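Hey, quick one: can you model this chain's 3D structure?
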Amino acid sequence: MKLTGGLAGTLPGTYSQHLSPTPTVTAPTSGGSATQSLAQALAKNILDVFNLTATVTAAAGGSPTLTGSATTGSVKVLDDIVASATSTSCSANATSASGNAMITGLTVDGVHHGSATSPIPPNSVFTAASGGRLVANEQIRNTDGTVTINALHLYANSLIYGKGDIIVGHVVCGINATP
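Sure thing. Here's the predicted structure for all 179 residues.
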């Protein structure tokens, strides 16, 4: 049982960088919980994320369960995507997996999206002026029964920044799931 939190993807740019999912936690097979945190993740002029935390809790035995979360403080992607916080969570048992992302203070190209009373719906798509397609609260059902939840997923395609993926708030949940 594994949960990945924080960031993932290949950052765009002339000198592409691969940023592994950070931090990553794996649930203990005998049950229990694990947490990892990172104060800041920075890729100059492309990504700036503060206070990343990933937590996973597992219950082993006859009815195994898994819950996890990935949270961030402020997020800035390229020059036109900003969020004041993200929270991504998922849960799984032997028969199902589900999850959701909450994005607070999302602004794309100066336009505010979502609020506490009107959260951003799953798989909301925005076009970023810097070049790319942003999917907020991305929810993917995988063929192996796991679920992938990304708070923010930028599919970058820009003459200035290049091509690549930037993912913030990434979790994968499922019994025996490996991202």
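One thing worth noting: The first strand starts at residue 2 and ends at 11.
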